[in-house]
Amino acid sequence: MKDYPVYNTYQTPSWCPGCGNFGIWYALKNAFHELGLNNHDITMVFGIGCSGNLSNFLKVYGFHSIHGRTLPVATGIKLANHKLNVLATSGDGDGLGIGLGHFIHTCRRNIDITYIIHDNRVYGLTTGQTSPTSPKGFSSKSTPFGVIELPVNPVALAIISGATFVARGYSGEIDHLASLIVQGMKHKGFSVIDVLQPCVTFNPSYSYAFYNPRVYKLEDTAHNPQDYENAIKLAMEFNDKIPIGIFYKTERETYEQACIELGENPLSEDDIENISIEDIIDDLLA
Questions:
Q1: Could you tell me if residue 49 is inside a domain?
Q2: Residue 44 in contact with residue 59, Cβ under 8 Å?
Q3: pLDDT of 228-277, one tens digit each?
Q4: Beta strands 165-170 and 242-249, pairing class
């Protein structure tokens, strides 16, 4: 397993031994190296939960947001300086619970950022409550008699909501996941990568022993990522076989391209010394 310490901080990861977050950590560093990015070329927004602890272990520009708000913050950063490489990362409970509305709207806006979902199907940081992706019947501290709702399907939801790059990775396949991150970051538009991330402590039913014999790579099949209907069909497959790879990819005008106010130069480089706040207020009140 390749590692690139240039992206490490002085902090040692505090995740449980065997946590799938380690695989995502390595995959991100491998992707950054393959893309030839320096530390200051990358801006990441982190959510709340075990995935949010990644902010302490990656030496890049970062913002540790509040619960469910990674995508609005990442959007603001991208619009302020659309030349930055912006990534957002959050857990399934963070991004698909309180953050679900932001997820749908970012998909339809097609903001040029990459969003990585740490999908362990449980609330790990708070020691094992039901999350939005927990399967029906899942027994936990918060649902001792089993979940009665159906789980959120982030891949299918991303496709029908308008995301232009939708993939699923597996933290047990680090090189494959790194490749998906590279392709997602190169894509112009909103890139969603749902990562199967085992929580060996609080959700052992969906650990490596469950995923290893089931996952298969879409690039080894005849699937065409431009086939919208087949992408949705594959997104619903989560039984004896679980597909990973790129489900759907298309080209569409990004939100930044549609914003004529942005122009060629980032807003962060605009000369504001000669702008009068009083004149702006007068125009608004006129």
A1: yes
A2: no
A3: 999 999 999 998 999 999 999 999 999 998 987 777 777 776 666 677 78
A4: antiparallel
- In tens, the pLDDT along 75-86 reads 999 999 888 999
DSSP code, position 205: G
Element (H, E) at 215: strand 215-217
The residue among 31, 10, 18, 68 whose CA lies nearest residue 176 is: 31
Closest CA to 45 of 99, 121, 110, 124: 99
Residue 183: closest CA among 245, 253, 244: 245
Q: Which domain holds residue 74?
A: 5-260
The domain tally of the chain equals 1
Cβ-proximal residues to 85 (8 Å cutoff; 6+ apart), any chain: 35, 37, 41, 42, 43, 185
Report the C-alpha gap between 25 and 2 in whole angstroms.
11
Question: For 108-129, how does the pLDDT look when each residue is reduced to its tens digit (9 = 90+)?
Answer: 999 999 999 999 999 988 888 8
Q: Does some domain include residue 129?
A: yes
Residue 286: inside a domain: no
Please check whether residue 124 lies inside any domain of the structure. Answer: yes
For residue 216, the cross-strand partners are 243
**Whole-angstrom Cα distance, residue 65 to residue 48?**
7
Tokens of 73: 């913050």
The token duo for 41 is 């070329």
CATH number at residue 104: 3.40.50.970
Q: Where are the beta strands (DSSP E) in 75-156?
A: 85-91, 114-119
Cα angle, residue 58 at apex, residues 12 and 246 outer, rounded to 5° = 120
